[in-house]
Each structure stands twice: as structure tokens, then as C-alpha cells.
Design a protein that fits this description.
This protein is α/β, with parallel strands linked by helices. The protein has two domains: 263 residues, Metallo-beta-lactamase domain (Metallo-beta-lactamase, Chain A, 4-Layer Sandwich); 93 residues, Alkyl sulfatase, dimerisation domain (Serine Threonine Protein Phosphatase 5, Tetratricopeptide repeat). 46% of the residues lie in helices and 16% in strands. The mean pLDDT is 94.
Length: 436
């Protein structure tokens, strides 16, 4: 049991820095939440698990990723060696569900009763989609997290019991109230444990700005996420255990976090919808929406994972489809054909690359990014154009605060390195693939 981790988690309320939290965790540690209840934080961008001891065995929330399940198991068994009665999946992301087989193998080996797995009704469809899109998910997650050799799993433990909106059940004298909400996923569960006044939120709370805009993943839900925050707030919890990062202790802190999260999401969502109703294009809306930067200074809402600008685009996608309102984009020329024509007008790909470098030097990285991309698309074998693309995207990645933006720009660097200097791609550091 780690009292030190509890103290460090409390200090995060004033100043949360992910690397400091990671160092404090070490490999994996359990921290007491309430009587007979702990959460286990694990190194990497991998979800917490939570465990509750009951008279009839343990109730466990999530099982970790394939790479962390053993650490989680060892830490859990250091706290309690009793049978696992029920596992509740907070949602179907791979950093939360891939330890199920390890838990089941242990139960069989020890002669324990079969573990019951519970998830929201949309979870089996998610797993089927994951299998159908395994190649795509291999590519996008490898790029997002900078793990080029990552392989997406193709086998998932489906829940034994699913529910629609709410499910209440008791195990060994402890009652669990499961609530469905739309947010980062469509199969998300947050749980209220009334006798301990604890909420287990899953990835509704991740100690970062809500992950409602991911540009490489399926639809996210901004307004329903705010509604989930308000539903949690109505419970007046004393403690909230998030999907990532330290638990929040104290009713005032829990209420503040949930209120700030809802306000942030409401503010962005409502501006986008107002501008859509006024007939604005996506580009006009992206330029016009005012991001509530005051809220983003909160330690638990920092834009370190998802970029608030991406939320604007995802809200548009939910209500408005894929067309952005620009007639040229409805049935566009291919990107290569457009790049070739622009290179012809400019006097060649070298001219585009030169101008991209000039723009980057002046600080206009967005426009530089366009021209660098046009240069390599116009002349895919042009090594100098690729070198410019590398430098521009290195600068773009360095200028960003979010994992998602850095992942895409660093992905472009790796693509161009593969053309001009493949040796630099060798022996690159690996990291766990985590939140969605």
C-alpha cells in the first residue's frame, strides 16, 4: 500500500506534471481509496484499475493492457489474494481490457469460481469493429503513440453481462451502481459506490482536457460527456477514481473538477453549434471558436493529450458530416494532382520546399506544413523536399503540447526519414500504447 502515492496525488491538485506522476508510480503501486478499496496506477499511458474487497470476493474495475496486466496482477495480489468475483469494464479501450485472460487463467489454476465480466451494451460491437479494423488500428495507434512496430490485438474478452443505461447489483454486501455515458467512447461506464461515497469514472476523467477530439479515432461525444460530468456531480461524492492519474480526495475537489470539466465541454460545444446554425463553414468555425483557456490552466484540464481545436472538428463531424462547407473539397482533385499543379505554378517542388523553410523560420508553421507536404507530394523522390518536410514537422511537433498532434507530426518525420535516412529509424524508444 502506498501512502506516499496518496500524498503525491493530493499535491497534483495544485500542480500536475505527468512525468513526475510516472516517476512516483514506479512500475505499479496500490493506493487506498476507502475501506477495503484500492486503485492501482501503472507506469505508461495505461489506465488505472480499481479493486473492492467484499465478503464474496473482489470486484475489479478494468484489467490493464497486454503489457501491464502482469504488473497489475502482481500488485493486486500483493493487496488481496482472494477470488475475483466480478470485473467491470469501464470501456473497451485496449489499455483497460487486455488483462482479462490473465485473471481468468489464474482463477482456473486456483480452482476459483468463474469470473463474471460486465460491460455496457455497445462493448461487443466495439470489439467486433476492432477485429475488423485491426490493420487500421495498428497504423493509427502506432503513429499516435510513436510505436511503429505496434500490433493491434485481434482477440477480446466479451462481457458476460451487458446493460443499457443503468445497472445496480450487489456483491458480498457492497452495492454498485453502473451508469452509461457517452464521451470518449459510446460504451463508457461510470460507477457510484454509495456506501463509500466513491465514483469510479473510467476515462471520463484522465487528468487532461477531455479526449473528445481525437483526429484519428471514431466519433467522440462532447455534450453527452458534459452531461455525464453533471450526473456524477449530483452524487456528491467524497472521492473520485479516474481512468488515468491520481484519485481525487475531498468532496469540494471532486465537485470542482466535474463542474470545470462540464463547463469546458459546454463552452466549446455550444459555440460550434451556434456557428453551424449561422451557416458558417468548418474553417470559419475553427477560426472563430474561443477556447476557454482559463479552464485549461487547471492541473486536471491541461491540454496535454487531446487538442481543444480537435474538439471543434469532432463536434462538426457529429452534426454536420464530413464535408467542411468548401465547394472545392466536395469532389476534390487528388492531393498529388493539386501538389503537382502548385509546384508547376511555383517553379518546382524545390521552390515550395524553400518557401516552406522560410515560413517555418518566420514562425508560420501551419502554412509551412502545407507547402512542405505539397513539395513531397509533387516530387515523392525529391530528397531535399523530404529534408524540409522533416525539419518543418520536427518544429511542429516541438511546438505542440498534446500527444495527438506530436504523434502525427512525428509520424510525418518518420515517413520522410524512411526516404532519405532509414538508419535514423533504428533503435527508437518504445512506449506503451494507452488511452484512445
Amino acid at each position: 500500500m502506498s501512502d506516499d502515492l496518496r500524498a503525491i496525488g493530493d499535491a497534483c491538485w495544485s500542480s500536475f506534471r505527468f512525468p513526475d506522476w510516472q516517476r512516483a508510480i514506479g512500475s505499479s503501486k496500490a493506493t487506498q481509496v476507502a475501506d477495503d478499496m484500492v486503485y492501482i496506477a501503472t507506469r505508461g499511458v495505461v489506465g488505472n484499475i480499481t479493486a473492492v474487497r467484499t465478503r464474496d470476493g473482489l470486484v475489479v474495475f478494468d484489467t490493464g493492457s497486454a503489457s501491464t496486466a502482469q504488473q497489475i496482477y502482481d500488485t493486486l495480489r500483493g493487496w488481496d489474494a482472494g477470488p475475483i468475483h466480478t470485473v467491470i469494464f469501464t470501456h473497451g479501450h485496449v489499455d483497460h481490457v487486455m488483462g482479462a485472460s490473465l485473471f481468468e487463467e489464474e482463477a482456473k489454476r486456483r480452482g476459483h469460481p468463474k469470473i463474471r465480466f460486465i460491460g455496457q451494451r455497445n462493448m461487443p460491437a466495439r470489439f467486433r469493429r476492432y477485429v475488423a479494423t485491426a490493420g487500421f488500428n495498428t497504423n493509427i495507434n502506432g503513429r499516435q503513440f510513436g510505436v511503429p512496430d505496434f500490433q493491434w490485438p485481434k482477440q477480446f474478452r466479451h462481457p458476460d453481462l451487458t446493460y443499457d443505461d443503468t445497472l445496480e447489483f450487489s456483491v458480498g454486501g457492497v452495492t454498485f451502481e453502473l451508469n452509461h455515458g457517452l464521451g470518449e467512447t459510446d460504451d463508457h461506464t461510470w460507477t457510484w459506490i454509495a456506501d463509500r461515497k466513491v465514483i469510479v469514472s473510467g476515462d471520463f476523467v484522465i487528468w487532461a482536457a477531455p479526449n473528445s477530439g481525437n483526429p484519428q479515432k471514431v466519433q467522440r461525444y462532447t455534450k453527452p460527456w458534459a452531461e455525464a460530468f453533471r450526473a456524477m456531480a449530483a452524487k456528491n461524492a467524497d472521492i473520485l477514481v479516474p481512468g488515468h492519474g491520481p484519485a481525487i480526495f475531498g468532496a469540494d475537489r471532486v465537485a470542482t473538477l466535474l463542474a470545470d470539466g462540464a463547463k469546458f465541454l459546454d463552452t466549446v460545444h455550444d459555440q460550434v453549434l451556434t456557428l453551424m446554425n449561422a451557416g458558417k463553414t468548418l474553417d470559419e468555425i475553427v477560426q472563430a471558436v474561443k477556447i476557454p483557456t482559463d479552464l485549461l490552466t487547471r492541473p486536471y484540464l491541461q491540454p496535454t493529450y487531446d487538442d481543444p481545436e480537435f474538439l471543434v472538428r469532432n463536434i462538426w463531424r457529429l452534426y454536420g458530416g464530413w464535408w467542411d462547407g468548401d465547394p472545392a473539397h466536395l469532389k476534390p482533385a487528388s492531393a498529388s494532382a493539386l501538389a503537382t499543379e502548385l509546384a508547376h505554378l511555383a517553379g518546382g517542388a524545390a521552390k515550395l520546399a524553400q518557401r516552406a523553410a522560410e515560413l517555418a523560420a518566420s514562425g508560420d508553421l501551419r502554412l509551412a506544413g502545407h507547402l512542405a507536404e505539397f513539395a513531397v507530394r509533387a516530387e515523392p523522390a525529391n530528397a531535399d523536399a523530404h529534408r524540409t518536410r522533416i525539419e518543418v514537422n520536427k518544429q511542429r511537433a516541438a511546438a505542440e503540447t498534446t500527444v495527438m498532434a506530436k504523434g502525427v507530426f512525428n509520424g510525418a518525420v518518420r515517413e520522410s526519414l524512411a526516404v532519405v535516412d532509414p538508419a535514423q529509424l533504428e533503435a527508437r524508444p518504445r512506449r506503451n500504447v494507452g488511452i484512445g
